[in-house]
Amino acid sequence: MARNLTGRIATGGLVILIGILLLLSTTNTVPTDSLWDWVPAIFVLLGAWALLSSGFRNLTGPVMVIAIAGAFLARNLELIGESAIDTWWPLFLVLFGVLLLIGRQRRSRIHTEIGEDGELTTIAIFGGSERRITTDRFAGGEVVVAFGGAEIDLTDAEIDRPPATIEAVVLFGGAEILAPDDWNVKLDVLPLFGGASDERKRPDEAPRRGDGPDLVVTGVALFGGIEVT
Fold first, then answer.
1. What is the C-alpha to C-alpha distance for residues 229 and 227, in angstroms, rounded to an integer?
2. CA 147, 148, 153: angle at the middle one, nearest 5?
3. Which of 7, 69, 82, 219 has the fewest Cβ atoms within 10 angstroms?
C-alpha cells in the first residue's frame, strides 16, 4: 500500500506543480520564464522513479522519457547548444531500438496472487502492466496509471464480501478491467477530458448475482480512460 501511495503522490504532485506554474503564468503573479526551464527535470525524476519502482523490469518507457527530457533540460540550462537536439535527435531512435533488442519490453506480464487482505496494488507510469487475479477473496484495491496503461484481469477472481472497490487514478493513459459477465459493476468515476464505460455485451437474459453491485470502480480519469470489458 505504501508503494501505491507513493505512486498517487507522484502523479498528484506532478499535476499540482504544473497547475501552479500555469496559474502563475496566466496571472502574471511572478515571472515564470526561468521556472519553465526546469519543467523537464520533473519528467526526468518521474522517469527515474518509474524505473526504480519497477525493479528495472520496465526499461523502455522510463529510459526514453529520461533521455528526451534530459536533453531538453540540458538545452534549457545551456549545457548544450540550441541546435544540438536538431542534429542528434536520431540517437533517440537508436536508443529505442537498443532497448527493444535487449528484450526488456514495456509491458510486464504478471500472474499473481494478491496480498493477504485480498487487495490489489498496480502502478503503471511511462509503461504498462498486465495482472491476472485468481484469488477467491478479491476485495478491491488501487490502480495508478500515468502516461501508460494497465490491464486487470478479474475473470478468474471471486469476491468474498461484495462489493469490492477499485479506486483508479488515470492520467494520460488507460486502465482496462476485465470482469466476469455475471458481475454487477458500478462506475463512479469522475471523467475530466476522459471517460469511463462498461463495454461488456450483456444480453438481458444474462445471469445476475443480485441487485447490489459486485464491483465498484471509483476515481478520476484525466485525459485518459477507464473501461470495464
1. 6
2. 150
3. 82
